[in-house]
Amino acid sequence: EAGVAQSPRYKIIEKRQSVAFWCNPISGHATLYWYQQILGQGPKLLIQFQNNGVVDDSQLPKDRFSAERLKGVDSTLKIQPAKLEDSAVYLCASRLRGEQFFGPGTRLTVL
Amino acid sequence: AQSVTQLGSHVSVSEGALVLLRCNYSSSVPPYLFWYVQYPNQGLQLLLKYTTGATLVKGINGFEAEFKKSETSFHLTKPSAHMSDAAEYFCAVKRPTASKLTFGTGTRLQVTL
């Protein structure tokens, strides 16, 4: 069974630029999560989707972050404009029967 | 609200020695508890979880953890460390009726010869 796929794996941008990350969850997993993991910290939930609907986006900085999950499968997370403090690993996870499966993450560096 | 405290951001053990990674939680309801491992440049992998029932939980790679309600703890142990155990370990908590995980800040395990 293929795991959660994410791309790109690494991204370097300058502040005020835009960036987008892509996630393809495990087939059949209805629930999808995006986490932000800042160096030295645990993952923090940004947004949770159930199929193509948002369940929880309470910690998503909506002035600059947006996410969508069209057709309830793939998802994209966008940051516009990026700030220095957005440097982090962005993890995507999908869930089946109570267990979350994580992708390898996208490491974002904002200069 | 749930929270997790992991004592010790870095732990170093010799190969073959006991591994003990500490996790204390705070929860307003009986929690579900998890340990995840993260190898460099990889995502998180579930090691083990406690939901209900037996308080001693066995996971993959020889790890186990014990849920102690009176101590609000869920410490991770392994009798004999291997070099391949070197990684970052995260404790997490969630409410039984919710899917949101709250993670601790992680403990980096170093295994030396």
Give the fraction of residues assigned to helices of chain B. under 10%
Q: What is the general shape of chain A?
A: globular
The overall pLDDT average of chain B reads 94
Quaternary state of this entry equals: heterodimer
| Rg estimate of chain A, integer Å | 13 Å
Low-confidence sequence ranges of chain B: none
Classify the helix fraction of chain A into a percent range.
Answer: under 10%
What amount of the residues of chain B lies in strands?
Answer: over 45%
Brief account:
The complex is a heterodimer of chains A (111) and B (113). Chain A is mostly beta strands and 111 residues long.
Q: Please, could you describe this protein's structure?
A:
The complex is a heterodimer of chains A (111) and B (113). Chain A has 111 residues and is an all-beta fold. Chain A is built from no helices and eleven strands. In chain A, strands 2, 4, 5, 6, 9, 10 and 11 form a seven-stranded mixed sheet that branches. Chain A is globular. The mean pLDDT of chain A is 94. In chain B, strands 2, 5, 6, 10, 11 and 12 form a six-stranded mixed sheet that branches. By secondary structure, chain B is mainly β. Chain B is 0% helix and 51% strand. Chain B is built from no helices and twelve strands. The chains are: A mainly beta (111), B mainly beta (113). Chains A and B meet through strand 5, strand 9 and strand 10 of A and strand 6 of B.
Secondary-structure map:
The complex is a heterodimer of chains A (111) and B (113).
Chain A: E1 5-7, E2 10-13, E3 19-24, E4 31-37, E5 44-50, E6 53-56, E7 65-68, E8 75-79, E9 88-96, E10 99-102, E11 106-110
Parallel strand pairs in A: 2-11
Antiparallel strand pairs in A: 1-3, 3-8, 4-5, 4-9, 5-6, 7-8, 9-10, 9-11
Chain B: E1 3-5, E2 10-14, E3 19-21, E4 24-26, E5 32-38, E6 44-50, E7 56-58, E8 64-68, E9 73-78, E10 87-94, E11 102-103, E12 107-112
Parallel strand pairs in B: 2-12
Antiparallel strand pairs in B: 1-4, 3-9, 5-6, 5-10, 7-8, 8-9, 10-11, 10-12
